[in-house]
Task: inverse folding
């Protein structure tokens, strides 16, 4: 973990207080927990997942906005029939006119560009590294590959529903970065209706589960998250609820007091955002149970589906 940047160390953020957030979560959790219990009952305890069983469970657990999924994306490669980076062609669907920016965390080339990614950038509250390498599973499957694969799957789902989707990096991007300030700027410039930064954590074995990171209220330097704190929380709660239901992945057992939600003020990608934005840490790459999920294409499809349903829910009611 020594190479994991401060952004994604098992963080030491302020523990969420028992307060409005917890109360809000209480409303959300029963449905989500139901999904988890169904998962425990039907799917077993989460080692390796037979995709057949899991698929059946998923379709039972995720009725609403799920579009029939065709053409699964390739493992971490280009999406079949992928459009290039950037805005998608015009299309119809319930999300027509909505813009979503997907930020796949890190970059596979960051390991070879340490000077570039260590350059400090201004995140409002302070200076911080341009970007970090991210983590990997013990077998070497990198977080940067994971995030890009989920991003491609998520883009496909959202585009099917008519959204215009932009990625902060893609196969044709430079071999490092972009810096966290640029990642935020891309969402701002696109006037995104929602932005999501995709990650997986690098914590200790036994620490598992997902969490969604919400922007704290920050007003310092170039950072002013005050207008986006409320909508970002709404977005994050919806994503957490749907992610839990669709994937069966439990909320983190090591951060967030079991809510699956954490608020942070030290992430440039959130501090500098002027559009509703959250991060999701989909699981812990250093935990063997989570790693078995994160390295499964079928599971990543469910992860993308869960995230998409949260975004769709947010966009259709905002
Ligand atoms: Zn990360």
Result:
């Amino acid at each position: 973990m020594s190479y994991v940047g401060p952004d994604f160390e098992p963080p030491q953020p302020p523990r969420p207080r028992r307060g409005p957030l917890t109360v809000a979560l209480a409303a959300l959790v029963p449905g989500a927990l139901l999904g988890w219990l169904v998962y425990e009952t039907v799917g077993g305890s989460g080692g390796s997942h037979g995709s057949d069983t899991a698929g059946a469970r998923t379709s039972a657990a995720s009725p609403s906005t799920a579009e029939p999924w065709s053409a699964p994306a390739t493992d971490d490669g280009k999406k079949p029939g992928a459009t290039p980076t950037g805005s998608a062609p015009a299309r119809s669907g319930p999300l027509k006119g909505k813009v979503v920016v997907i930020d796949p965390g890190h970059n596979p080339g960051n390991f070879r560009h340490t000077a570039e990614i260590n350059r400090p950038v201004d995140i409002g509250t302070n200076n911080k590294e341009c970007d970090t390498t991210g983590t990997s599973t013990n077998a070497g499957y990198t977080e940067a590959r994971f995030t890009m694969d989920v991003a491609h799957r998520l883009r496909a789902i959202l585009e099917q529903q008519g959204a215009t989707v932009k990625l902060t990096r893609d196969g044709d991007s430079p071999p490092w970065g972009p810096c966290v300030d640029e990642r935020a700027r891309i969402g701002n410039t696109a006037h995104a209706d929602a932005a999501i930064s995709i990650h997986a954590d690098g914590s200790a074995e036994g620490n598992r589960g997902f969490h969604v990171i919400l922007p704290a209220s920050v007003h310092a330097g170039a950072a002013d998250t005050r207008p986006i704190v409320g909508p970002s929380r709404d977005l994050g709660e919806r994503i957490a609820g749907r992610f839990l239901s669709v994937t069966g992945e439990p909320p983190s057992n090591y951060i967030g007091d079991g809510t699956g939600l954490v608020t942070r003020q030290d992430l440039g990608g959130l501090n500098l955002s002027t559009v509703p934005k959250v991060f999701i840490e989909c699981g812990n790459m250093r935990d063997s149970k989570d790693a078995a999920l994160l390295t499964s294409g079928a599971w990543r499809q469910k992860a993308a589906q869960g995230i998409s349903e949260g975004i769709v829910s947010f966009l259709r009611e905002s």
Observations:
- Residues 88 and 164 are 5 Å apart (CA to CA).
